[in-house]
Design goal:
single chain; about 200 residues; Jelly Rolls; five-stranded antiparallel beta sheet; about 15% helix; about 30% strand; globular; apoplast; Germin_Mn-BS; disulfide bond; metal-binding
Length: about 200
């Protein structure tokens, strides 16, 4: 656990952006824009804006994918607003999976703290990078690339993931392909053209 704390502290120092002001705690009562939330008035900022306790407990893995992601993004942890960082906890029950997905707004660093996770990503050249990670192992997922995680242990596995954005975004491949409102004829046409000799 000490290695995880040191790693995440180092990542915070390395990835922090130069700011004109010390911080911009997100005003969650205001709408979120492309650059994040508006800054809360400094007189309203408290130490609690810089502390997040939501990663202490395991997430609920009694679902179809047997996995839970507990985020500490700007919407949950307003202190990260504008700092170019965020973190989440990943809980995977045995046979749990985080399906193929991408974060259009951030790179991701995953640190396994319990169990074993099979993780991988696909480059834009369609090369696959796949590795079984054990406790203490770290893997990087470059911004915008498809990636996944699968519990490869017979016990619960836990990882913490750090992002290079306070709002990394999420697009799950299955939903993008099959849960959209694109007319079927448009989907079928390019596919049928690819099958021509």
């Amino acid at each position: 656990m000490l290695h995880t704390i040191f790693f995440l502290s180092s990542l915070l120092i390395i990835s922090s952006h130069a700011l004109v002001q010390d911080f911009c705690v997100g005003d969650l009562k205001a709408p979120e824009g492309p650059a994040g939330y508006s800054c809360k008035k400094p007189s309203l900022v408290t130490v609690d804006d810089f502390v997040f306790t939501g990663l202490r407990a395991a997430g609920n893995t009694s679902n179809i994918i047997k996995a839970a992601v507990s985020p500490a993004f700007a919407a949950q942890f307003p202190g990260v607003n504008g700092l170019g960082i965020s973190i989440a906890r990943l809980d995977l029950a045995p046979s749990g999976v985080i399906p193929m997905h991408t974060h259009p707004g951030a790179s991701e660093v995953l640190v396994v703290t319990q169990g074993s996770i099979l993780a991988g990503f696909v480059s834009s050249a369609n090369d696959v990078y796949l590795k079984k990670l054990k406790r203490g192992d770290v893997m990087l997922f470059p911004q915008g690339l498809l990636h996944f995680q699968i519990n490869s242990a017979g016990v619960n596995s836990i990882a913490f993931v750090s992002f290079s954005s306070p709002s990394p975004g999420l697009q799950i491949l299955d939903f993008a392909l099959f849960a959209n409102d694109l007319p079927s004829k448009l989907v079928e046409k390019p596919h049928s053209l690819m099958m021509l000799p």
